[in-house]
Amino acid sequence: MRVSLIQIAVNEDEPVASRRRRAAALVREQAGADLVVLPELWTTGAFAFEEFGREAEPLEGPTYEAMAKAASDAGVWLHAGSIPERDPEGPLYNTSLVFTPSGDLAAAYRKIHRFGFDRGEAVLMSAGRDLVTVRLPETTLGLATCYDLRFPELFRGLVDAGAQTLVVPAGWPERRRAHWTLLARARAVEDQAFVLACGTAGTHAGVAQAGHSVVVDPWGEVLAEAGHDEEVLTADIDPARVAATREQFPALKDRVLGLEPPRR
After folding, report:
1. 156, 193 Cβ separation under 8 angstroms
2. Could you tell me which residue ranges the CN hydrolase domain spans (predicted)?
3. Which of 146, 166, 208, 264 is 20 to 30 Å apart from 109, CA to CA?
């Protein structure tokens, strides 16, 4: 199974409409891949808080239309990263979109853990509530976004729902890049799953992005890693390795759930 992670640069001097067209062209160039992934909030930038409201779209807005067409043109499954979605009821969400090779919407995931510690995304966007998986012919995807990576219980929930490949689009900052790689490998090891972590390049809102998108196998080995600048990271993965790893080292069956807190 061939996966391509598009580590697109998000810079303030490029209009959103221009970047949308460029992203669609990059997706089309990945014809022949099985799955293509874009980063989190690549239309606005994950730290461009003032742009969230201005550039928010309905679910089936301009990014949806452009990405659906790109997926269909390339004949690929496309995780189109996330957009600032404006719900008809009014709230904003950080919403990921996944399209089939025919350009149909397969799933939408609203980010559950919002970053900002009572500012930024944490106050501007509402939290999603649902775990989302997507069945592909070769594997089942579990969807998460950026800051979600720090919460292992979400990923265990995805594994319990059948996920074998965990897809994490992000707008991760350079100053915490070491955490990015560490946490991607940790989620792969503890869940015995592939992790496809796709970040952004460039600088927006004064925040340099980490880049270094990464493909990690179920043993925690890094199969491919991007650099700091814009690039497309492509790797071949064998989805059968998930079941083989879980059989050879069946740690997941030894989980102990429902533990009670200590009595005082």
Report:
1. no
2. 1-239
3. 208
Q: In this predicted model, what pLDDT tens digit does every residue of 120-149 receive, in sequence order?
A: 999 999 999 999 999 999 999 999 999 999
Q: List, by residue number, the catalytic residues.
A: 40, 111, 146
Rg, Å, the chain Cα set: 18
Buried b (16+ CB within 10 A) or exposed e, 1-14: bebbbbbbbbeeee
CB 130 within 8 A of CB 158: no
Among 7, 40, 46, 92, CA closest to 206: 46
Within 8 A by CB and 6+ apart from 234, the residues are 2, 3, 4, 5, 30, 33, 224
> What does the alpha-carbon distance between residue 82 and residue 93 come to, in Å, rounded to a whole number?
9
Average pLDDT over the chain, rounded to an integer: 97
List of domains in the chain: 2-250 (3.60.110.10)
Distance CA 223, CA 218 (A): 10
Task: Name the band, by pLDDT with cuts 50, 70 and 90, for residue 3.
Answer: very high
Instruction: Look up the pTM and report it.
Output: 0.97
The H or E element containing residue 188 is helix 177-191
